[in-house]
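Protein modeling request. Please complete all fields; requests missing the sequence field cannot be processed.
Requester role: graduate student
Desired output: 3D structure, token encoding
Chains: 1
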Amino acid sequence: MSFGQRNLDRTKPEVDFPDGPVPTELRSIDIIEGAGHEVQPGDQVQCHYVGVTYEDGEEFDASWNRGEPLAFRAGVGQVIEGWDQGLLGMKVGGRRRLEIPSQMAYGERGAGGAIGPNQALVFVVDLVDAR
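Delivered output (131 residues):
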């Protein structure tokens, strides 16, 4: 069953404001457990996502706004470490919340004007495809 055929909510998700202290380690929470292929290191994946800063919940990026999922190889350093580790084991069709400490995101350097130095991030990720 392809991603588009699943009878699940597949619109841009709202990201709940983080509750509790800033994470010091990666937290991965399945919102919807997929039923397809399980992501392994080196898999080519496609994901839709929304990203917000942990401290204030401000959205800084969302693939949904561009209408195209992000494509990359999982577990090989093409994305931030929190994604590389946080998506492993996720199944196609799933939706997962990743709470990523700054050292597994952009660390001291930040990313442009949207993500300041040492900011923890929250992503809600929909796994569209993996092979």
